[in-house]
Amino acid sequence: MIATLGGATLGVAALGLAATQATAATEHRSAARPAVACVLTPEQTEGPYYLDLETVRKNITEGKAGVPLTLRVTVVDAATCAPLPQTAVDIWHCDALGVYSGYVAGGSTPDTTFLRGVQLTDSAGVAEFTTVYPGWYVGRALHIHVKTHAGGTVSGGTYHGGHVSHTGQLYFPETYNTRIAALSPYRNNTATRTLNARDGIYRNGGSATLLTLTQAGSDLGKGVTGTVVLGVNPAATP
C-alpha cells in the first residue's frame, strides 16, 4: 500500500514511522508545559498564627537564615482555568526553628514580621516570593500558609479591602524535607519532625498543593524553586 504526503510517496512503514515521530513530538511538547487542571483547590485551616498585616513585598526573609526558596504561586479560575491577574497572594510560615513572627518565645510580639508578605499576581496569574525553606514544629509537617484575596487595592505598601477567595496550605516533598533537615540551621531544630503522611491536615487534601521543587544546582544549600497552581473561585467568600 502506498500513501502520498506533501507531494512525496511514502510506504506504509515510512508513514507509520512519521506518525510515531509526530505523536512523540506532541507528547514531548505536552510534557514540557505545566499541566493546569480546572479543579477547585481544597480549603485548609488558617491556623493560629495569621496576622492581618497585608504588607506587599516580594522578599519576606528579613535576614532569616535558611535555604533560599523562590516560591511561584499561579492562581487560576477553577471553573475556566483562566489566570487571575491582580489577585493578592498572602503567605506566612515559620522559620528554620519552627518560630512564627508575631509569636516569638510563646507570646505575641506583633512588632516582628519576618516570613510574611503579599504579592499581586501578574497577567499570567503568577505571584513570586523570595523566602527560605520553612522549618517545622511539633505535630505539623513542613508547610506554608496561603490566602488569596480578590477585589482589593494597594496603597502605602499595604493591601486593603477585597475579600478572601481561598485559604490553604502548601507542602513540600519528603525527599527534600529529609535532606533539608540535615543542613544548617535546620539541624538545630530539636522538635520531632512530622511526616506529610502523619499530618492530619495534610491528609485532608494536602497532596493537591504539594510543591514541585527544582534545585538551583548540585548544592541544595544554594536554594530551590517551588511552584504550585491554585484553582480558586474568585467570587467565593469565607
From TrEMBL:
- Reading the lineage from the top rank, the first entry is Bacteria
Example GO molecular function: oxidoreductase activity, acting on single donors with incorporation of molecular oxygen, incorporation of two atoms of oxygen
Query: Would the keyword Signal turn up in this protein's UniProt record?
Result: yes
Positions of the Intradiol ring-cleavage dioxygenases domain: 48-139
Signal peptide as annotated in the record: 1-24
The UniProt keywords, alphabetically, are: Signal
Q: Give the protein's recorded name.
A: Intradiol ring-cleavage dioxygenases domain-containing protein
Organism whose genome encodes this protein: Streptomyces filipinensis
